[in-house]
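Office hours follow-up: a student asked to see two folded examples consecutively, so here they are.
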Amino acid sequence: MPDVRGCHFPEDLLYDVDNHIWVQEQGDGKIRLGMTSVATAMAGQLVAFTPKKTGRSVKAGRSCATVESGKWVGPAKSLAGGEVLASNEALIAKPDLANDDPYANWMVEIAAEDWDSVKGGYIVGTDVAGPYETKMEADGFAGCE
């Protein structure tokens, strides 16, 4: 598992480094999205998670959820557009689950439109260390520990 400045990145996921989002393929063009360990470390203790409602459409590059902590409120963006199939009800009820384990606590599942072409915009887990090191350096982020 790649580790950058104390932040862990499971190899079996895809990453949108700029938006600090991980993606797990579910088959048939369905994907699950969640926040990376960097996102949760930067945000601090999460206090609210509001996903787009099931059945709603997410436009590519736009928000699929809003995340709030004591020091930050902002969108969780998806490179893939599509229909929201499910939201993590446990995360809605207890947003700080993502702080405990961001990779076990996904946010939304989407039926991605044109997934085969969008997939190339993500970085595979085995290759994510270099891009994340560059991003952390540019953002002045010391790390997760």
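And the second, which I mentioned at the end of office hours:
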Amino acid sequence: MSDEVPEDGWKHTGVRVIPGDQLDTNTAQTPGMNRAAAIDFARVGARKLWAGTVHIHADAKTGAHHHGPLESVIYVVRGRARMRWGERLEFTAEAGPGDFIYVPPFVPHQEINASSDETLECVLVRSDSDAVVVNLDIEPVEKPTGVPWIDPTHKA
């Protein structure tokens, strides 16, 4: 065995399964959503990522916010997500079940549940174990500009 194998032989320091009903809601929050941490430093010793869930009630939207220097990935499990982003939330795009959303560092954004009768359920992953959330006071533009996805590696 390698010198890097811990004394417990990975029994308690190896793979961890975090039951979905045991997530930690004592994490940074933004008005309009409920975040719950599954993976972070405090819970499993993660040093380079944070993962958890977010729920946004039907017809609800979050406050504008960003996540500092962290990159974020949102995976839509159920519902329809309408994202707004930009200095005045002037851009918009939608995502549905099975879609991934990438949010670069420092980008002001807002999640909106585009459904009037279904909770939006997503999985979040961030590029650091620190739950950085900077809530912003932004006056959004009246009509945002739709921005379609263009794949830079497979141009049509």
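Two things to take away from it. The chain has one domain: 24-146. The mean pLDDT is 93.
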